């Protein structure tokens, strides 16, 4: 019974989503504003919040601010809800740290499927190798840790999964579609912007100069590969 925090100010939409999730045996906490939601991230006794469904259009703190606040304190998956398929809203939400998005109105089947997919990938699987050294970057697949020049680099789960996937085959070029399938567990439901946003966030944390990356390199017109150069 996973614990989902649903942040939505429209009462009718929130009640409908809550009913759907409870029917699928989720534990659900609800909030109508970001200010109300942030204290709920601590979860219930013995039942931490495992995923957040976050509407972007909130009174007070908007969804972008709430997402950044969540990312400052937690690595749990965040699925954002947007009332429009507006590219800028979607990109800004992904840059704020969201792992996925759905456009409202969303059917119960699609929402529950996206939540199940996010929860499936919430714990990256360690590979057989451990303590890999890549020009100052050390990736420990057993401990699921990343350090650079002996300094720990905390990564949200999707960025860690992305780094583990790319670094497992240095020099291999991965298309965005391949990464959506292997890292996000998505195919036609996915969006290449998920990959691009996660790459940009990851570069800000592991690269000396994100604009001139050594580790996560762009192969123009195709996708990405792991260096380092």
From TrEMBL:
Gene3D superfamilies attached to this UniProt entry: 3.40.50.2300, 6.10.250.690, Winged helix-like DNA-binding domain superfamily/Winged helix DNA-binding domain (1.10.10.10)
InterPro entries: CheY-like_superfamily (IPR011006), OmpR/PhoB-type_DNA-bd (IPR001867), Sig_transdc_resp-reg_C-effctor (IPR016032), Sig_transdc_resp-reg_receiver (IPR001789), WalR-like (IPR039420), WH-like_DNA-bd_sf (IPR036388)
Xref: Pfam families: Response_reg, Trans_reg_C
Annotated ranges, domain Response regulatory: 3-119
4-aspartylphosphate PTM positions: 55
Name of the protein: Response regulator transcription factor
Top-level taxon of origin: Bacteria
SUPFAM superfamilies given in the database record: C-terminal effector domain of the bipartite response regulators, CheY-like
DNA-binding annotation, residue ranges on this chain: 128-228
Stretches assigned to the OmpR/PhoB-type domain: 128-228
Keyword annotations of the record: DNA-binding, Phosphoprotein, Transcription, Transcription regulation, Two-component regulatory system
Keyword Transcription: yes
CDD domains according to UniProt: REC_OmpR (cd17574), trans_reg_C (cd00383)
């Amino acid at each position: 019974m996973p614990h989902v925090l649903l942040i939505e100010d429209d009462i009718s939409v929130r009640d409908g989503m809550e009913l759907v999730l409870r029917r699928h045996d989720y534990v659900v906490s609800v909030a109508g504003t970001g200010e109300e939601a942030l204290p709920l991230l601590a979860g219930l006794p013995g039942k931490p919040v495992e995923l957040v469904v976050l509407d972007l259009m909130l009174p007070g703190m908007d969804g972008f601010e709430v997402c950044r606040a969540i990312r400052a304190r937690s690595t749990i998956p965040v699925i954002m809800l947007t009332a429009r398929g507006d590219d800028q809203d979607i990109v800004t939400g992904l840059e704020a740290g969201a792992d996925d998005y759905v456009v409202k109105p969303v059917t119960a089947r699609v929402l529950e499927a996206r939540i199940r997919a996010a929860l499936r990938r919430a714990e990256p699987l360690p590979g057989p190798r451990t303590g890999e050294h890549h020009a100052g970057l050390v990736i420990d697949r057993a401990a699921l840790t990343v350090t650079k020049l002996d300094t720990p680099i905390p990564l949200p789960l999707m960025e860690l999964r992305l780094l583990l996937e790319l670094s497992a085959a240095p020099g291999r070029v991965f298309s965005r579609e391949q990464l959506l399938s292997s890292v996000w567990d998505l195919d036609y439901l996915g969006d290449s912007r998920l990959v691009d946003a996660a790459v940009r966030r990851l570069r800000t944390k592991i690269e000396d100069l994100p604009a001139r990356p050594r580790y996560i390199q762009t192969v123009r017109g195709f996708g990405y590969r792991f260096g380092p150069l």
